[in-house]
Amino acid sequence: MKNLNIGMIGYGFMGRAHTNGYKRVNDFFKLDYRPVLKAACGRDAVKVKEFADNWGYESIETDWKKLIERKDIDCVDVCTPNNMHREICLAAAKAGKMILCEKPLAMSAEEGVEMCEAVEKAGVANMVWYNYRRVPAVTFAKQLIDEGRLGKIFHVRSKFLQDWTISADLPQGGAALWRLDVAAAGSGVTGDLLAHCIDTCIWLNGLIKDVSAVTETFVKERKHTLTGKIEKVGIDDACIFNCHFDNGSLGNFESTRYARGHKAQYTFEVNGENASLSWDLHDLHRLNYFDYKDEGPLRGWKSIHISDSDHPYLKHWWVPGLNLGYEHTFVHQVADFIEGLQSGKPASPTFRDALETQRICDAVLKSAKTKQWENVGR
Amino acid sequence: MKNLNIGMIGYGFMGRAHTNGYKRVNDFFKLDYRPVLKAACGRDAVKVKEFADNWGYESIETDWKKLIERKDIDCVDVCTPNNMHREICLAAAKAGKMILCEKPLAMSAEEGVEMCEAVEKAGVANMVWYNYRRVPAVTFAKQLIDEGRLGKIFHVRSKFLQDWTISADLPQGGAALWRLDVAAAGSGVTGDLLAHCIDTCIWLNGLIKDVSAVTETFVKERKHTLTGKIEKVGIDDACIFNCHFDNGSLGNFESTRYARGHKAQYTFEVNGENASLSWDLHDLHRLNYFDYKDEGPLRGWKSIHISDSDHPYLKHWWVPGLNLGYEHTFVHQVADFIEGLQSGKPASPTFRDALETQRICDAVLKSAKTKQWENVGR
Amino acid sequence: MKNLNIGMIGYGFMGRAHTNGYKRVNDFFKLDYRPVLKAACGRDAVKVKEFADNWGYESIETDWKKLIERKDIDCVDVCTPNNMHREICLAAAKAGKMILCEKPLAMSAEEGVEMCEAVEKAGVANMVWYNYRRVPAVTFAKQLIDEGRLGKIFHVRSKFLQDWTISADLPQGGAALWRLDVAAAGSGVTGDLLAHCIDTCIWLNGLIKDVSAVTETFVKERKHTLTGKIEKVGIDDACIFNCHFDNGSLGNFESTRYARGHKAQYTFEVNGENASLSWDLHDLHRLNYFDYKDEGPLRGWKSIHISDSDHPYLKHWWVPGLNLGYEHTFVHQVADFIEGLQSGKPASPTFRDALETQRICDAVLKSAKTKQWENVGR
Amino acid sequence: MKNLNIGMIGYGFMGRAHTNGYKRVNDFFKLDYRPVLKAACGRDAVKVKEFADNWGYESIETDWKKLIERKDIDCVDVCTPNNMHREICLAAAKAGKMILCEKPLAMSAEEGVEMCEAVEKAGVANMVWYNYRRVPAVTFAKQLIDEGRLGKIFHVRSKFLQDWTISADLPQGGAALWRLDVAAAGSGVTGDLLAHCIDTCIWLNGLIKDVSAVTETFVKERKHTLTGKIEKVGIDDACIFNCHFDNGSLGNFESTRYARGHKAQYTFEVNGENASLSWDLHDLHRLNYFDYKDEGPLRGWKSIHISDSDHPYLKHWWVPGLNLGYEHTFVHQVADFIEGLQSGKPASPTFRDALETQRICDAVLKSAKTKQWENVGR
């Protein structure tokens, strides 16, 4: 068993989720590598120390450049706000580190291209944390589509609905609320939530050709945590877009943080000639499936409880009927990343794979401004 | 088209439901007979007149004996409280009338035997209004079981849960609340609600051999509407029983009027070797079906929307996706009764069929008293 | 009780549904008028006779102009394909008849304006059969919104998904399939299905300002039933549009006949500041409701079984827990139409109300062509 | 931070689940103790070594008596088949070790009494792994009931349905299938599955007074893995029982391994005067709640997604909308056990608490034999 020394930059929600993935993977998966929590990095020494102690990181850094220079780090995990991804990844690639970067890859496709070229030039293993591909029900959906069970695809629809920013009293910016600050996040729901929908759906159904979008910012001004002043809100609170996939199917995507009653209602549905399937993050352990080949009067939507050993990833866990949860997606992603190292066939999404989502997000945001259909640049 | 002249005794909730069945059947089913609303009968002339005018009955009677003597009546519909069923049915049979009797057939199996013998001796068509057999999803369940799709049956469970008598201030007895008065109703939930569960389940799974029951009366005394006095409550508020079916499967039945949140939560589930199915009156247009023969990872419970033309009764109605409701069960039962007249093969449940439910109810109530397992007498 | 003499033009699915509404309304609603099935009209004398006999129409006509001239007709019901609505309605208005017209009102807003002016000039009662407003759960949603329970509305989304035209072997045109023939139908899913979504949503949430749409015709050519030749398909198989409502909320609408597994999956959801609600035609007796004012840890989506006497229309029917179905919407609409006659306050949607949906459909179809946002003309 | 040295006896499914609980608890809960995986014990040295290496146990033992004697073990975890619980626990208590024993506590109440007396005499911390109390939704149900929100309780029903032993070809006995061997397991579904239902329901609703049960063994003979011979099956394949709780409410319990379509369908429902709640292991992150105090027309069953920081245990995990799974129940139980050590107020269920479930199981099995109601001995 070889060690895979992890250097974690950032210690927020994603820092915890990834770290949990590293710590648990070897208990459940037989692998040649064991992630070692070598160092955690953050600007606030007290807070990063607390994080490191809690999770068992061996050391801390307060300057990410130092972390990247360390000889004992194999793999840099980038969990900073989006506006830091590019700089860190470019430096990490240059230093010859493997990189696992939180999604979205970048602030723009332009940045993304630069980052792809950097990791490819450096020849370092790289991956973006689009974790929802590794929900077993989602992976199973991918298998069913790849086996051709749905036949020709006509429709894809995906939504990511939340309700946590409805109050106009919520400020923007700072450590806790950087997702509301356009300078740190780049965009609102488009990069934060729709990016997940897009990543999953292009994985399931292939690339998107063109888009027509509308965005809205319901609360126009919010106090900024850092300046203490009321400032214009630069992010999109909601975004809806329609699109054509390369295979001729129609897509309909929507995301908002103003859908009262939905915490993280991430859903998708795919309608094919022969079968359809749908999924909902709030019940992530189920896949809904309709098969037209069933006998006529017995046709119906099946709710498949994804907990059997012949479902993706499940043989590594418990027994039929017992649910996995959200955090398992990160364990799975670490396992797949390591298997990619072992096999030489990199786990997806690589930076290059994730660049496609970036391009679509760019086209979506552009279309929302031009009020025109926009082609996805490639 | 021949006329089938109906004489309706009683004009409450069931009087309305049956009448609606008679009035609508020919619009949707091609039949040789047309029910004609000849006369409605009730002791209160004003009220029965109002009922007759509303629904279009040609005449009224205030004495059921007169109704039965009328030459222009072919068919007597008995919608009175349970304690009147026997006397009216015996007289109607003697008068050579066809009889459609509201469930439960009688106050006891003993009464039921007498009533069966009377209609059989008289050779008159007869039926009991166990209407839920004619919910299309329930009829479809019967078809699936009869086709052997479930294989050997291991378990049947059925419940009928309500919550309308929880308040201790609710009185008992009188026109509106005779179901709470043991003198009029014979029993509480056993005859009123469990009788439906039993009728459906023995239709689906064959006869019951023995039972072990417990009943409870949560509110021990209620004001009686007729006497104005606080009187002991003689009915069962709740009844649970376990049983063996003749085929070796186990049954578990429960009914109560003290299950907060349930209006008419009538459900059943049947578990067989190869498949299982379940149904719920609150979503009566759906049948849930699990088939073990499905491919392993694709196994799941299917929710079948029973609205296609190849589902029972549905070709007579609208188009796929559009729901039928409660009242259609009575239309179906009238249609089947008439088709029974046409074919000479009587529609079930006849009095004789319904007697079996009576016997089981008797055994259930007896077991609740003796605290022993009781065989179903035959 | 006054008679309201009905002349029905057309005898297909909608002819049956409306007729059933007329026949049943007085059994359940206390009204001053009784619809009388005076005459049914269709070009095929044999078929219209069969229809008239089945439902009890007193007479038939094979020329709709004759029907309109008849003195004994008070009210003309227009159940023809869409391309006949205008001419019949103009003539009927001129003849001073009340008019109940099947939806969509017209082939275009231009036609619709002409029709509105005609009925208003003639001063005749008029209504369009957007029946889904009268699903009790939908009417209840309207009440909750009008009471201000949702607060400021942010999002409306509505879909109508079907799957019955996926086979390329299905022909277009003729009596059964005129909905696939652009000459008879005017458009595909936009006028047939989205019109329902639009009517309901503007009733719930006010007018729509502008739209951006995409349409698709997946099967480009189909055999035409009338010509026997393979012809280009002129209708839209699928249509998705985004929009702004006048109140600043965002709308997302989608309809298709290529969504495998959905028979008539008509749904809507409305997200407000304080509460959200959603509904689904496949379970039309339920309204889903989320109220942010509930205590924090007890917040959740409630599934309200709309069957109590304090729910809209329900006091006229059965008892709590027992479902209504699709056809009741037409009974309700007839009742409301008659109550409008009684009160002098016309039931909605009048032709004028329904014109708004026509305008939106026009803008949607235009946007799909121009690939631009289009304002809804008024 | 103090170490809590764990000695694990057994290394099957439960050995893994408990171990995972020990390893993860300090990442998520702030505690004064840290469980240390000191030793794993099993008779098969190769297999126990593999287990120990996988999970990181520092050492192994092949004789549980040696493990118990070790000075460096603070806490013995008993994950053996049921027939070993008594002997090991008595010895461990005598050796002054804390004991965490897998459920059911014992083969009989008689054994259980002996075990309670042993741990109480020794004064050692003790707990039984009825893990489902620590599903957040279940803990939340307990809170709601304890706050009096349901009012007087009328009904409790609980089921645990599985389908994995339907095939008659499945053998009994041995490491994998000891649950089918009466000598090792003591009983079938009663001790394995109903014990969970009973533990949860008496926690929620208080003690049970008397029971009436029926059991069934559908497959009468199975090949025994150890002897290779066809032997009589001594366990119960299915068990249904009715009961009275001390507070006057009625209970209905059922468990089987012959309910096709159910993997681990563990459910309960509690009906109170003012409110009702229900839960299902297959969707363990949801609690269904009906509150009669809601406004009349808005009453309905709410599906509460238990993932907010004000839900039990949730503040230790992720963010709203993201699900926990099965294994978290064990993490919670370890956390609560340790908090019990810290506070001096032992976490439940202690051996003494779990003895009550044993007594009820005994009464259930006795009633199934005597076919009488049996009081729960105390």
Short key terms for the protein model shown above:
17 strands; Dihydrodipicolinate Reductase, domain 2; Rossmann fold; alpha/beta; 378 residues; globular; 26% strand; nine-stranded mixed sheet; homotetramer; 2 domains; six-stranded parallel sheet
Report on the structure:
The structure is a homotetramer of 378-residue chains. The first copy, chain A, has 378 residues and is an alpha/beta fold. Chain A folds into 2 domains: 2-129, NAD(P)-binding Rossmann-like Domain (Rossmann fold), CATH 3.40.50.720; 134-375, Dihydrodipicolinate Reductase, domain 2. The first copy, chain A, is 34% helix and 26% strand. Chain A has helices at 13-28, 45-55, 64-69, 85-94, 109-122, 136-146, 174-177, 182-185, 189-205, 328-343, 351-370; strands spanning 2-9, 33-41, 59-61, 75-78, 98-101, 126-128, 153-161, 208-216, 221-223, 230-232, 238-245, 250-256, 265-272, 275-280, 286-291, 301-305, 374-375. In chain A, the strands form 3 sheets. Chain A has a 9-stranded mixed beta sheet with strand order 16-15-14-13-7-12-11-8-17. In chain A, helix 6 packs across helix 9 (189-205). At the A-C interface, strand 7, strand 8, strand 11 and strand 12 of A face strand 7, strand 8, strand 11 and strand 12 of C.
